[in-house]
Amino acid sequence: MLIAGEFVGGKGSGELTISDPARDSTIIAVQSASTDQLGQAVTAASAAQREWENVSPTDRAATLHRLADAIETCADQFTAVITTQLGSPVGLSERLHVRLAVADIRAVAEALVSMKFEQQIGASMVLERAAGVVFAITPWNYPLHQVVAKVAPAIAAGCSVILKPSEEALGAAALFARCVQESGLPAGVLNVVVGGGREIANELVGHPGIDVVSFTGSTEVGSAIARQAAGTITRVHLELGGKSPSLIAPSGDLTTGVKVTLANCFLNSGQSCNALTRLLVPRENLSQVEQQILGLMPRHQPVDPWSNGARMGSVVSVARQASIWSDIQAAKDRGDTILAGGTGLPDGIERGAFVRPTVFFDTDPNSPIAQEEVFGPVLTVLAYDDLNHALELANATRYGLGGSVWASTNHEAADIAREIRSGQVDLNGGAFNPAAPFGGFKASGYGRELGRYGIASFIEPQSLQN
């Protein structure tokens, strides 16, 4: 843990076990933070924040660039840790998990120097002030990217941060803390505490020294955190679950749309909150889609994450594996049709938290497998009758995080996307943009991360009247 600029061991009564899911083996056990240590982190963050806010935006941006440099220098270490603790293929760990995090930080730094923190509005001087001390709770599925998506905008805004990384992927956060020290960030601006999510949240969400709570995780836990924070009127940002549609319009490139959607759904073993897990296709094309999916499935089979050219590794734990299998079996028991995959270990694999990528075909749109987040490599294919029906299906879940539209032109795709209640929609396979806002509608949360929108999430305006 990192508290007030010093690395310390936990003194709490709880013990966290760090595992290698691909080998179903324990790596190490660490002690959780004590209540006193959590209080020390709040004290350190409060003291450091007041000075850090007075550092110029240009100098804060320079610190962020040094942080990105430090992560790039340690890229091989981050790659190894993420591959080991997440089960992510080694190539994916380097390309997606590490490089994306670096791009996130640099995009925030570039946005910071372009922002105005003072402006005259009539007789008022309006200041953009740091919101204060941020309690950031991050998930395990992107153990570096999700950390920087919260920490970088917060410290860019002049806030200090108490980071509680997921207990299932602590290694990347520990390395990140080392890089933070190398960047020259003042002691106390970032503090890292470890422990069970519920125990630490109970201590810090309603703590009087916390000004903002930023949480990424399930919708159910996010709702509980919002209720707890309401007791102290603490500001909350929530980035929650998703069940994102990939809508291939009648004019769209069906072959490319199916191929990219399948790859996106299975990326990171399906453990992405914005994964395209619902494929919406014209009913008359179902047969063609079926044959294409069957032809593509062999390239997405899970293998040892350290293998050359691996596309899929394991999921994060045997507990996650069991949860995914339970959802697949429940859907099968309800009569939903499995086109490919299913429960049980993939062929050739005898142990570890591996899951066969699974496709449910021509699914009832109201089925739980088509409505609720599985958080694993599970795709549902839904047929629509016309474009209005497709949009109805696209908006027919409680979530609204990601999405994709495939049409003959980007202009047509954009017109369709405007009818989808989702925070981010890709047009004809558009690439992820780390400078653009990321966040959801409906039960996918509120608040935005990344770039200038992420910085704005940690700012409070103050008006000085003449």
From TrEMBL:
Q: Does the keyword Nucleotide-binding apply?
A: no
* E.C. no: 1.2.1.3
List the Gene3D superfamilies hit by this protein, alphabetically: Aldehyde Dehydrogenase, Chain A, domain 1, Aldehyde Dehydrogenase, Chain A, domain 2
Instruction: Look at the named UniProt entry and state the broad enzyme category this protein falls under.
Output: oxidoreductase
Q: Which residues carry out catalysis?
A: E239
Q: Which GO terms describe its molecular function?
A: aldehyde dehydrogenase (NAD+) activity
Pfam family of the protein (one):
Aldedh
- Identify the keywords attached in UniProt to this record, alphabetized: Oxidoreductase
Instruction: Enumerate the spans annotated as Aldehyde dehydrogenase domain.
Output: 14-462
Q: What InterPro entries does the database record attribute to this sequence?
A: Ald_DH/histidinol_DH, Ald_DH_C, Ald_DH_CS_CYS, Ald_DH_CS_GLU, Ald_DH_N, Aldehyde_DH_dom
Its recorded reaction(s) are: an aldehyde + NAD(+) + H2O = a carboxylate + NADH + 2 H(+)
Family per similarity comment? Belongs to the aldehyde dehydrogenase family.
Instruction: Write the protein's name.
Output: aldehyde dehydrogenase (NAD(+))
